[in-house]
Structures are given as C-alpha cells and as structure tokens.
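Q: What residues go here?
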C-alpha cells in the first residue's frame, strides 16, 4: 500500500514545475542520525512522507529520486544544505535545479534569515519553535508535529515568488542561481569521531597530566557508549 501511495505521489509531483521540500531528522536523539520525515508542498497540497513507516524504505523512497534530479522541476528549500546532505546520505538522491529561500534572503540583505522570522515578517505566521527540538524519530507523530511539519513547506513557494521579484529588481538572480547550483554538489561526509577532541572540552587545558588522561579515557568511553545506545554523545 505504501509503495503504491508513494508511486502515485511521485507521478503527481512529476507534473509540477515547482515543489517545496523540507526534512526532519533525529540528530538530537540518536548517534546514527536519519531522515524521519520528508515534507513536500505544491501550490495546492502539502504532503508528508514518513520513511520510518515504509516497509521497504530504500526501494519506496527511490520512487521519489527522479524528482530531485529533474532539471525541469525546481525544488525550493529553506537552508537546503543540511536537507540535501541528509537525503544524499540516506537515499542516494542526486540534485538539480535547487532554490534556497535562506540564501536568497541573505543575498537580498534581509536582517533575519531564519524561517520562523521570515514567515512571521512576510506572512504573519508563527511557527511553533519548540517543535524544532521534538523527537522526530518517535512514533506516532503528534498533531502538533504534523502541523509544524506542514507549515515548514506550506509557504515556501509563495516566499520564493516574492523573493524572485526582489532578486530581479536588484539584478541578482544570476548570483543566486550560481549559489544554488553549488548546493546541489554538497556531499555527505560520514560522521567521524576524533579521539583527540577532548582538548576542546571547556577548561581541559587547565588540567594536570593525570587528570587530562582521565578526561581522554572518559571522552573516548562516552563515544563508544553513545554508539552502543544510539544516542548523541551529549546525552551520555
């Protein structure tokens, strides 16, 4: 059933010239972070795709891959780099024709470029800030989470329209497009643990050698434990 639903979604989206995209991941709650939700909006409909609910996640998510590499469909993100990084890492997606509302806001010299601030200023919409720290890997998702996730992409196409006008007036569309093209190229780097980064712990440099040795061992133990429990090291 899931496979057929995502197949139909992919077909519907293939007919669009513009789609808005966002993802939610669980980096605050796990060591091996993963994409927990993909939000996609057209001008008429908001869709939520839940990779954690799919029986065969890899082959079902692969149905959406052609959309992201299709140069005929513009994908609008806010702060695209992290989303692209995660979608490449988890699903091997490739990207063409990206638009990033955060980069455009920077180029236009907007003071606050965070999505919450921009939506408040331009559309009078208040995003639920506390949802940014929600556990997106937990199921079922709450009604609050679902409505927050929808709002993340719901206004992006209208925001893009407004920005394109301003970029054209300022003669900076080309500059923006060059920045967006660079984004499509970001490559995910696997998470690496640096066993010597204990030096960066606050006040580490004030410790005597014996205490520093203890800190080093604790620092390494914490990372091993975090992997075992699949929790971020700061929660150990």
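A:
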């Amino acid at each position: 059933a899931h496979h057929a639903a995502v197949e139909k979604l992919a077909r519907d989206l293939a007919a669009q010239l513009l789609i808005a995209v966002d993802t939610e991941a669980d980096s605050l709650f796990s060591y091996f972070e993963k994409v927990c939700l993909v939000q996609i909006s057209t001008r008429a409909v908001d869709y939520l795709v839940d990779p954690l609910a799919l029986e065969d996640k890899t082959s079902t998510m692969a149905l959406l891959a052609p959309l992201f590499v299709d140069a005929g469909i513009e994908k609008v993100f806010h702060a695209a780099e992290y989303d692209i990084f995660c979608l490449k890492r988890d699903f091997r997606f490739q990207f063409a024709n990206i638009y990033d509302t955060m980069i455009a806001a920077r180029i236009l010299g907007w003071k606050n470029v965070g999505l919450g601030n921009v939506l408040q200023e331009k559309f009078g919409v208040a995003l639920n800030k506390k949802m940014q720290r929600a556990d997106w890997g937990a199921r079922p998702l709450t009604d609050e989470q679902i409505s927050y996730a929808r709002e993340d992409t719901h206004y992006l196409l209208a925001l893009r329209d407004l920005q394109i006008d301003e970029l054209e007036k300022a003669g900076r569309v080309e500059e923006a497009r060059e920045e967006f093209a660079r984004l499509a190229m970001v490559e995910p780097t696997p998470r690496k643990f640096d066993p010597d980064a204990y030096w960066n712990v606050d006040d580490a440099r004030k410790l005597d050698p014996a205490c520093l040795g203890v800190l080093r061992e604790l620092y390494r133990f914490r990372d091993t434990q975090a992997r075992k429990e699949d929790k971020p090291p700061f929660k150990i």
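A: Context that may help when evaluating the design: The chain is about 45% helix and 10% strand. Strands lie at 18-25, 35-41, 46-49, 74-77, 98-100.
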